[in-house]
Design a protein that fits this description.
The protein has one domain. It is elongated, with a radius of gyration of 25 Å. Helices cover about 75% and strands about 0% of the residues.
Length: about 230
């Protein structure tokens, strides 16, 4: 493995510049950690809100299932709020990963300093003209895959269970549909909206997974010329 002076010579960087990159990397790690904490906070809000809705719904056999319906609106709000935060987090994470794969890893790998030409310019452009590296729907899909799909499934199963077992075990599908009625909204529509709600969330999660895989392949396993 080459010495530090050899690395500096090949990179065109002196010791002070190498140190500056190290401090820059530490700063980006700190920012990504900070935004990661914000993501966890939003997820906690969603979990607590769903827990309250479950408690209200199953407090008694005669309790309404409406809290489980209304909590879906809050879960969607938290989901899009978290997706927005994730787009910020992804900027700092991408910069950290870029320095790891194009500077630190090659430095540790004997005789393979560059994974691509002008990696510093790509990083510099990201500082000069900062932008999101992924779209909002990709961020939404990633957050659904990470945690929200499970919350939505728990919500859906709890709602279905409430209709089936309370106030007494249902004797027919028609009785279940009748229990799903909310004011002027027929039960068929409420159940249909619930299926669309979970189905669209699952579809976005699958789409984002396929998108991420395709993007990774196009970038050669994450070592391409684009960040994010």
């Amino acid at each position: 493995m080459g010495t530090a002076n050899e690395v500096n010579k090949r990179e065109g960087l002196d010791a002070a510049e190498i140190g500056a990159i190290a401090h820059l990397y530490r700063a980006e790690v700190y920012r990504s950690t900070l935004w990661r904490t914000r993501l966890d906070t939003t997820t906690n809000w969603a979990v607590v809100t769903l827990g309250i809705a479950l408690s209200l719904t199953f407090a008694s056999p005669n309790a309404s299932a409406l809290p489980l319906v209304l909590v879906g609106v809050l879960l969607l709000f938290f989901l899009f709020l978290e997706a927005r935060r994730y787009r910020f987090f992804n900027v700092w994470r991408a910069r950290c990963r870029w320095m790891e794969t194009h500077f630190y890893a090659p430095m540790l790998n004997d005789g393979d300093l560059h994974l691509e030409e002008d990696w510093q310019k790509t990083l510099a452009q990201d500082y000069w003209r900062p932008k999101y590296h992924i779209g909002l729907m990709v961020a939404v899909g990633r957050r659904v895959r990470s945690s929200y799909l499970w919350l939505l499934l728990i919500q859906g199963l709890a709602y279905a269970g409430k209709l089936v077992v309370h106030p007494t075990p249902a004797q027919s599908v028609g009785q279940i549909v009748e229990r799903a009625v909310v004011g002027p909204i027929p039960g068929e529509m409420m159940i249909g909206l619930g299926l669309v709600y979970v189905g669209l969330s699952t579809a976005v999660a699958v789409w984002s997974l396929l998108y991420d895989r395709k993007r990774a392949l196009s970038r050669g396993g994450g070592r391409g010329s684009s960040m994010g």
